[in-house]
Amino acid sequence: MSRVPEDIKTVPRHIAIIMDGNGRWARERGLPRTEGHRRGADSVRRVVKACGELGVEFLTLYAFSSENWKRPKREVDALMRLLQQFLKSRTPEMMEQNVRLQAIGRLHDLPEACQAELHRSISKTAQNTGLTLILALSYGGREEIIDGVKSLLESVEKGHLDKAMIDGEVFSKHLYTRYYPDPDLLIRTSGELRLSNFLLWQMSYTEFYVTEKLWPDFEREALLEALRAFNARSRRFGGV
Ligand code: FPP
């Protein structure tokens, strides 16, 4: 089902989102940060549904960065529990909405129970043909590039790849994102103007959209605003 408002002519094929501001949302209300994350998970649900309805093909969400491990253990544990709970309770909804779940990052760093839940949801939804939802977990762009370089070297050492053949396209095939197109649009909530180690290689020509809205307040209308801004851009990919 595609429910695209008439003034949105082009729906980005791939949207990436830096979901920022859960902590501030909670602080403004005198609530614990974990409550902000819980409300952030509700936003994830809404945005996944809206993207599916709009006909977006890929949605990558920055759910837990390599740097997020430095947060207090209590907050990290709460985020891992929330992720596990989300996967367990929302997989039936993903099935109903024809959403295929994928994940990128150093997934082996996640607690075992989380990894198990993640792999369960990924295999359960593997045959779905609608939106591909990609969760970036224990993800860092620099780490991904380092892992990509190691994988390239291994291919060269094993004789599967000739060094002279290495170019951007070949390198892309050694990244976690090898099966997905580059993002067309990056949305960052809560007003910060940085990339924060997210999809560094893949965002060379991605359009950036920053909103002051905090992630728990981000809903369908805010997403449509981002799509309208995207439609007003002229993408030249370095050409004229
Ligand atoms: C940034 O807010 C958000 C995160 C570090 C985690 C994102 C997690 C969620 C949206 C919830 C769980 C996700 C899923 C997929 C179920 P912040 O804590 O940095 O906010 P602040 O900058 O205001 O402190």
Which residue ranges are poorly predicted, with pLDDT under 50 across at least 5 consecutive positions? none
What helical percentage do the residues reach? Answer: 40-55%
CATH architecture: 3-Layer(aba) Sandwich
Q: Spell out the helices and strands N to C.
A: EHHEHEHEHHEEH
Overall geometric form? globular
Which small compounds were modeled alongside the protein? Answer: farnesyl diphosphate
Distance from first to last alpha carbon: 36 Å
CATH class (first level) name? Alpha Beta
| Count of spatially separate domains | 1
What structural category arises from helix and sheet content? Answer: alpha/beta
Strand content: 5-15%
Q: Count all strands and give the number.
A: 6
Please outline the major beta sheet: 6 strands, parallel
Biggest sheet, strands in spatial order?
3-4-2-1-5-6
Average pLDDT level: 97
Over all CA atoms, what is the radius of gyration? 18 Å
User: What count of helical segments does DSSP give?
Assistant: 7
Q: Could you say what the CATH topology is called?
A: Undecaprenyl pyrophosphate synthetase
Short description:
The chain has 240 residues and is of the alpha/beta class.
Explain this structure to me?
Helix 1 crosses helix 2 (33-54) and helix 2 (33-54) runs parallel beside helix 3 (73-96). The model has no long low-confidence stretch (mean pLDDT 97). Strands 3-4-2-1-5-6 form a 6-stranded parallel beta sheet, sandwiched between helices. The protein is globular, with a radius of gyration of 18 Å. The protein has one domain (14-140, 182-231): Undecaprenyl pyrophosphate synthetase (3-Layer(aba) Sandwich). It has 7 helices and 6 strands; from the N terminus they run E-H-H-E-H-E-H-E-H-H-E-E-H. The protein has 240 residues and is an alpha/beta fold. Farnesyl diphosphate is lined by residues 19-24, 37, 40-41, 44, 61, 63, 68, 82-83, 86, 135, 190, 215.
